[in-house]
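Tutorial handout. Part one gives the primary structure; part two gives the three-dimensional structure as tokens.
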Amino acid sequence: VTYWAVDKVLLAVSEIYLAAWVVRVAQLVQVAGERHILIFTAHHLIFDAASTQIFMQEMQALYHAFSHGQPSPLGELPIQYADFATWQRQGRQDEELTHQLAYWKSHLSGYLPVLNLPTDRARPAVQRFEGGRRPIALSAGLTSQLKALSRQEGATLFMTLMAAFNILLYRYTGQEDMVIGSPNANRNRIETEGILGFFANTLVLRTDLTGKPTFRELLARVRKVALAADAHQDLPFEKLVEELQPERNLAHSPIFQVMFAYQNVPSEELVLPDLTIAFLESETVTAKFDMNLSISEEEGSWEYNSDLFEASTIRRMITHFETLLASIVANPEQRVNQL
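Part two.
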């Protein structure tokens, strides 16, 4: 029953994929006796973080139904991903998208600085995307203090952590014009909430650290930038790059070299009858940027370009970030050059 149910579930869920993209999206491998590993592979072009949670929910519902000889309990979707793609293509010509493009051009006008992080090794002439990843964990007490500070300032935890990340990069580089990429779920329509597919967009958050502001003052600046970016989130990042025509350099990515990702998608626990399930972590050996901090309320990971940084350097940087956060909640009136 287990084999039959899993195979049927995967067939039902994988219907989203076009035949041209898929050879085998999933494989159930018997390791020993009753121990198996389910390997699922999906290209990021058609699968984002929110899709992972939807996939888990649907797989769980289908497995429960099929293993008891019942039909699929999933209802019809209000739209298909193709409908969203059509809307996005048509929308690029409308007045709202023109307005959004004007905002981004203004926000990113002038010289866009390259983040000059001190590296362990010289930057290769051509970026090779070799990478590694280190875990980061915040204590429950520290997270609680950060959330309390965020509420006091009318900000979200994302904004507070983003402001702190800006200060960390400022401390390492001395640069006061900070440009950081940040992924956005971009599921701002109720019809898209339950659809598997790639909806995510990349927003560019440019923060001014001049004048040695206090943390509270900097947080207000980050809040303003983040809210404006969210209000103009529909413009696809690739369209923005096309319009800005930034100076290209094969040694690093254009517009920004560091990304900050706040993961607030609820983690979905997979519970299937008569099975004990654990998730296996895969080793990261690539890096899309110089570094990418991906964090939730209490934990996350720090992806880094291993051509530039040693693992020991990233571990030290993570410790510095945790120390910085503790200093911020202890006294948010400190100026960025004192923290």
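Part three, for discussion. DSSP finds nine helices and eight strands in the chain. Residues 15-23 have pLDDT under 50 and may be disordered.
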